[in-house]
Task: inverse folding
């Protein structure tokens, strides 16, 4: 079944939208958050736990899976879904952002990116055709085009050159794609320059992708700039295609993105924070190792319906964290991922009931601006 | 409900027994293996996973829980069962063995053991009365007496002195015990000297405990000596009380212990091995990082009914282990714990069907003596 996006409802006061993506491995209600499963696992979580937290789609990192265990092995093992025991939708990135993050270890040419593996130093060359080949071997439901992620800061000239390369590669990715079951999204670059972002939209959208992402955000630029890009550029994207704000963000960022008309998000914040004992709650962000939780028999968050909150006290979670127990990471991750996915459920419910702006304001006021 | 042990059946060719312990938190079928939950968690496992692996009882370490988070906090939080979300039976050791393991950090007197915490160096004094107080605060179903674990090697004179101290402490523990809901086991010491082991039995049994343990085994002595102790001393223990071989062992050790009339075992081997990627199977012990599993789409063990074997390939488990993912420890631990608990189920079934010796021989032949 080919990829499909249905725009179900538009908010009456903001640019927010309620939608539904249909993929080869099932349905994703939007706005959606994708927990990050970098190396073929959302760190510390069983697939059943991810699903129980309300996830309908997860993200896999092409760069990591290409290097280890290798896309060919995953293909032989029956594809990524089977390999990792996650039968629901998966989006894979193109590897562009990870390669960009390698800094001195990579070199960009007109044809692709030469880089050294962070694992063993081995040399690799990723081209637009190659990243499609890899993602087709992985069998993800949504593939991303290879892009050049413009660094922050970058001059207007560099940024323009970069977005033009990204658009050229997008065209090559589209042509390389063989499998109709897998969707392919284009990526809008243009750094912090709104006119260059606009140029990127104009060069990317006519190529005709199944969805569009805003890339090169959350790379160190001030938050106001990221917000300005989301606010100005999202409405330029086709209304009937899903829009994805890559690598974003905090709960507040997600609410902002949704109000701009973004449909999809991914971020390591819930999972990484959990492993560091930073836990999201209805009232505050908790540092679980804090001595004030030593004899606290309450759950992390009285309003939370996650497995962790239903079965364990803050005192126990503090003990596990301080004792450096693996179960600390397991239970903390379940909670934070559920927190994010419950937020998405609440957003969708608010959109459905025509009260998104009220929900957003209530949420931001409750958090006291944290 | 007070503790009860029912001897259900005696094997016709060995000293093996089928039994049932009834505790305040439920029933334990024997011979039983207790997964080790040192710091209030069987490392990397959710309580539901422990239960699904077939565990009816787990072990908690008094030494660790006393130091962190502290038995008084656990008591305030509703006791150990509630704190760790494990409503089934728990046995706690006395802390004696852990203190013994501290070596230069502890000093033994006639009244108890003075030691420095391995966490922060703070000074502590454990007496027979104190370890009962701690275990009553934890609320375990089976408590252990404070013993002095004789080192290996030790002279006959040292060993004799040590077992006499252990017997004296056992008497003090018995007197200190206030709670009728909790059982208390005595510990037989005597090192590698069978006549001293016999003396220890003669000094301990008349005190009248709910069960008896063989302590001071698996402390570095040759395996033949441990086997000789189990074989000679177990039959001297009261038939109508459970017998516990502390800290033992490999699957082969357990089969040997059962054939000597042992009812209970605990050991970190399944959990610790799992975290190091050493996995028990029907055929061999697998080192999962081995390159031969790179493209192996089979489960760890075709005959295993655990969650890991039902859902994941060796290739995926190898990938997770090499990528240093937390999920590697989670999935490996589930498998090894299930392996041990399935072995206990098979032992009990064989005893029930009067074919224990056949089962034992088949098992040992299949393993090729590993």
Result:
């Amino acid at each position: 079944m080919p990829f499909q996006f249905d725009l179900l409802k538009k908010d009456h006061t903001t640019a927010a939208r309620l939608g539904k993506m249909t993929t080869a491995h099932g349905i994703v209600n939007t706005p959606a958050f994708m927990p990050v499963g970098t190396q073929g696992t959302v760190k510390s979580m069983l697939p059943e736990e991810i699903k129980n937290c309300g996830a309908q789609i997860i993200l896999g990192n092409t760069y990591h899976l290409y290097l280890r265990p290798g896309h060919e092995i995953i293909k032989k093992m029956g594809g990524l879904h089977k390999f990792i025991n996650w039968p629901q939708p998966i989006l894979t990135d193109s590897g562009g952002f990870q390669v960009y993050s390698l800094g001195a270890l990579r070199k960009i040419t007109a044809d692709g990116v030469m880089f050294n593996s962070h694992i063993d130093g081995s040399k690799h060359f990723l081209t637009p055709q190659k990243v499609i080949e890899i993602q087709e071997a992985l069998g993800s439901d949504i593939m991303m085009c290879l892009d050049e992620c413009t660094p922050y800061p970058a001059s207007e000239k560099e940024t323009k050159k970069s977005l033009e390369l990204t658009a050229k590669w997008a065209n090559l990715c589209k042509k390389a794609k063989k499998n109709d079951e897998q969707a392919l999204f284009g990526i809008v670059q243009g750094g912090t320059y709104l006119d260059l972002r606009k140029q990127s939209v104009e060069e990317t959208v006519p190529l005709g992708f199944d969805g569009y992402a805003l890339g090169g955000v959350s790379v160190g630029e001030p938050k106001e700039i990221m917000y300005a890009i989301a606010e100005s550029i999202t409405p330029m994207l086709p209304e009937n295609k899903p829009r994805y704000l890559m690598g974003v963000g905090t709960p507040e960022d997600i609410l902002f993105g949704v109000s701009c008309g973004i449909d999809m998000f991914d971020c390591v914040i819930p999972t990484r924070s959990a492993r560091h004992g930073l836990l999201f709650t209805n009232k505050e962000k908790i540092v679980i190792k804090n001595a004030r939780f030593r004899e606290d028999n309450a759950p992390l968050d009285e309003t939370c319906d996650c497995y962790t909150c239903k079965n364990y006290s803050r005192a126990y979670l503090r003990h596990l964290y301080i004792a450096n127990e693996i179960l600390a990471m397991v239970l903390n991750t379940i909670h934070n991922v559920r927190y994010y996915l419950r937020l998405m459920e609440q957003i969708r419910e608010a959109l459905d009931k025509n009260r998104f702006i009220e929900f957003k304001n209530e949420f931001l006021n409750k958090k006291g601006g944290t």
